[in-house]
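Troubleshooting log. The previous run stalled partway through. Resubmitting the same two chains, unchanged.
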Amino acid sequence: METTLQGLSSRVKSKKENNFQKFEYINMIYLAIDLAFILEKLVLIAVIIVISLLVALYSTYGERKVAGYIQDRLGPNRAGPGGIFQPFADGIKLFMKEDVIPNSSNKFLFILGPAIAMTMAMLTSAVIPWGNEITIGGRTISLQIADINIGILYVFGVVSMGVYGIMIGGWASNNKFSLLAALRGASQMISYELAMGLSIIALLMITGSLSLKTIVEQQSAGWWNILYQPLGFLIFLICAFAECNRTPFDLPEAESELNQGYHQEYSSMKLGFYLFAEYVNMFISSALMSTLYFGGYDIPFVNDANLGQSIGHNWLAVLQAVSLFAKVGFFLFFFMWVRWTIPRFRYDQLMKLGWKSLIPLALINMVITGLIVLIKENGWPF
Amino acid sequence: MQTLTNRAKPVDRHPMTRMEKLYLPAIAKGMGITLKHFFKKKVTIQYPEEKRPFSPVFRGLHVLNRDEDGRERCTACGLCAVACPAEAITMEAAEREPGEENLYREEKYAAKYEINMLRCIFCGLCEEACPKDAIYLSETFAPANFKREGFIYGKNDLLIPDPVKEPELYQKALGSRAKKS
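Second attempt completed without errors. Output:
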């Protein structure tokens, strides 16, 4: 009730004295549309988008550094100290380049492709809990844009939309290599989404909730899900690589076979968006893996609630966000580490792995998990 | 059959075992190798700041030598140009006038002496052909240039600094390849 009153404007307050009935009615509307709430969410969205973009920006730099170090080189180190301005130099270069739209392409779809890729990459961040609640001026703000009760379904919906970016871009280019790459991308994503979904179902049987926030809270209280679902995590990890089009599953952009893949005809910032979307996807799937299997924002080896009492509510939330970002950072490094270790699969090997190994494994994992959950709840029936 | 070295390894063509078909142990092993390289010392030499020392027999840019009094040794005999397999050297001879004895060692000298560094293959045959020890190859290489003309080195670029007037620069330019006479 208090928060509702705060949301009232002075206009409503003056009417309040005249007509109590009307007040109740307007009160209901303001209960639904809380201005401070909208403002708070807008700020949160802006912050999270800026952070995702920054992380993605520096992932490109990190990737080049990791590649260099793994190959006994130093990587970019000329722009600024240690080369930390390299991503900005790359960005400016991409912006300055001539933006070519091929004459024979479908212009609307050609522009739509990178736009979808980028938007869909960003959208998933809405349901990931970046930390627990913080309290500013009496308001409790959750560090999650939307705690929807179908969080995981939302993630899957958005992720499967991401393939449209590749497909539309590849088709609109009117180039046979782009089209081939787009087809590869589409079939690869569909194949691996299946196994990914099945591995998630096994996880859902344990958590009993689709809300990412609830899943994190359960892990904070008990053990991390990786201990219950090691096989499920492995399947999820492999599928995440495939969904992000990362090596060893980077067949849609196999530069040695398809010149450049689906973004061959793209130049300037449209190309930049495609490349950037890949890094945003990496960031988001790292966050998702941390959230689902590695406790999310839970600080390892520490009882978060006790820590919160000693250092304060807000500091705990900050520490939790740092903890989540440390986990995400590790996964980002892992993505890069794998890229510079494992060569690309052949296409038939990719399909074989997806359909003949991962899906049966995920199914077995699901059945076993289901059995154990049943036995745990009902006891041994025989 | 006896092998030349004992490093030859026969190719292992046994069918993969169940463990190998998993690929995961092999992948973990590979990741271990790349992680090891991640922490290894890097071999990169940061070029403009840090330069790799050349070996004393390195054949780089040419130097037209002077004698100890600072006189040019070259007499424009043309043997270097004849010896040059890439035909990179051109020269024009001139006669020494009275009063120029402190400039040129012999009665004939090279008024113009040009080496095209784009043609030169840095074989050092000019150095071998020279009867006067007037030309030798130093330990630096030709720097990059935006124009082709920039690679045609004249006497100004090639002549070593005067040992009498600029002894420090002379010593610096001399390098270890010059014949000490």
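Takeaways: Helices of chain B lie at 18-21, 24-38, 79-83, 125-129, 155-158, 167-174. The mean pLDDT of chain B is 86.
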